From TrEMBL:
Keyword Transferase: yes
Gene source species: Geomonas terrae
Name the UniProt record assigns to this protein: Sulfurtransferase-like selenium metabolism protein YedF
Family: Belongs to the sulfur carrier protein TusA family.
Keyword Transport: no
Lineage: Bacteria, Pseudomonadati, Thermodesulfobacteriota, Desulfuromonadia, Geobacterales
UPF0033 domain residues: 3-67
């Protein structure tokens, strides 16, 4: 069994370190010590998303994961053309649309997100970064629309570091928390990336 301690590491290092350890372990069981909150959520989502089983144990100073299974991390890398068949990813980096008056920009962004509900083709994932995370936090006028998008299969994810910066992590009201590793990986594997 391999062991890894990622406690105290900032996002996205816990996920990156676990990814590397899983690749090196080549199917061997991996024992990981990690902090609660975003590191725990991100590592668990990462491992399970790649076909690994995650056994979780609460500790006094965080969590311990035992990650088992072959997963997909040891599978051969996909050829570049496969990315063309990948998901559609939307990256929203602000709480307003366009340049100019802030009030108008916020109204445009609100209308854009609500309008997505009337479209047949939805993105597979929406990532909120920088001030875009404010759209998924309590007090936002688009929470119901984001929840409905989630109910329709759109994965709604906000950057953990950004939520921390704006002191909104405890006030996230729609979707989940993610990290830069997942955002970068999703963008590179996407069929198309829509950036706002």
């Amino acid at each position: 069994m391999s062991k890894l301690d990622v406690r105290g590491m900032a996002c996205p290092l816990p996920v990156v370190q676990v990814k590397r350890a899983l690749e090196a372990a080549q199917g061997e069981e991996l024992h990981v010590l990690l902090d609660d909150g975003a590191p725990r959520e991100n590592v668990k989502r990462f491992a399970q998303g790649r076909g690994y089983q995650v056994l979780e144990e609460k500790l006094e100073d965080g969590f311990a994961f035992t990650i088992t299974g072959a997963g997909a991390a040891t599978a051969p890398r996909e050829a570049a053309p496969a990315a063309a068949a990948g998901p559609t990813v939307m990256l929203i980096g602000t709480d307003r649309m366009g340049d100019g008056a802030e009030e108008l920009g916020r109204l445009l962004m609100k209308n854009f997100i609500i309008t997505l509900l009337d479209l047949n083709d939805l993105p597979d994932r929406i990532f909120f970064v920088n001030s875009g995370v404010l759209l998924a936090a309590e007090g936002s006028e688009v929470i119901e629309a984001l929840e409905e998008l989630g109910n329709r299969g759109v994965e709604v994810l906000s950057c953990g570091i950004c939520l921390d910066f704006y002191k909104k992590k405890e006030h996230l009201a729609a979707g989940g928390v993610t990290n830069m590793f997942t955002i970068a990986e999703s963008m590179l594997k996407a069929r198309s990336v829509v950036r706002l």
